[in-house]
Amino acid sequence: ELPFVGSLDLDGLPITQKSDAFEMNHVREAYNNKKYERVINLSDKLIAEKNSAYFEEAKLYKLRAMDTLAWESGEESDIDKDEILELAQEWIEENPSSKHLPEVLMYISKTYYKLGHTGKGDEYSNILNEEFYDDKFNKLAQLHKADRVYQNRKRRAEALKIYKDVLYKTDDLMIASLAAAKITKRYLDMGKVDLAEDFYKKIVDANEPYLKENLKESYEFAKQFAKAEKYDIAIQIIGVLISSNSKNKHIDEMRKDIGYWYELSGNKDGAFGLYRQYLEDYPNGDYVGFVQSRLDKTLLDINEKNATKKMENIDNILAKYPNDPIYKKAL
Known about the structure:
The protein has 331 residues and is an all-alpha fold. It contains 18 helices and no strands. The protein has helices at residues 21-32, 36-48, 55-72, 81-94, 101-114, 118-131, 136-150, 156-169, 173-190, 193-206, 208-213, 215-227, 231-243, 251-264, 268-281, 288-298, 307-320, 325-330. Helix 5 runs antiparallel to helix 6 (118-131) and helix 5 (101-114) packs parallel to helix 7.
């Protein structure tokens, strides 16, 4: 029989003190549930007990939560950015040989870049690149560096090179997808839609969960591709987003869009079916008027083999749209 080890510390070593284990579990659960304010509050309680066996782990979770709220939430944050730097540097002084060192170095580098302090950001990203080249947090730091470099119009080619180096030199699918998405955004900004499509298709084909996890970004890309008449990839993206089981506040609009993009791509039968399904699923939806209008207009283009039914469709359209260009088409 194997000996009982019990709780482990941040680096996987046994802990003899168990008094704060319950609280630390609450911190982890809150982080996994993306309740970052709660993570900070719970972590502060453990940090206040300097003799806690979970003192350093609580600090690390607080740092993770602060970084997310400051830079990744998509909302205005009152997180003190200087506190992120202070906490991270303090953590490194206390844990210079921890396996989590690359992660904390990345937070410092990222924060400096976000604040516009390129030199300081480079200082820490260079440490990562030299000492932890293959580590995923180094790759993330290089992406943040590329974001900063891209802001200088004269260095945009250099930024794209950094993005592509990360994309092609990482084995981490999430980081590769993040790099490809950043390249996509840059090429769309430049008006190079074909190149943008090539890079985003790498994500669509290999990592559908990334699209769902980054729904807002993915939907925006789909709309930009559709605007550029790249309907195939736009439809492919939105099809993944619609199939997501996660809460999707844009589902009504997406269901309207996919039908319209099918129609614009020339697939009138597909559009007709999607329009009908929308009206069945969303009888009080925000886009009922638009969808009903498009449905009526596709009636003239679908392959209706029943001659009587086809004449009924034409009669309905003539009555419904007497002043619309579709009237002449029906005649």
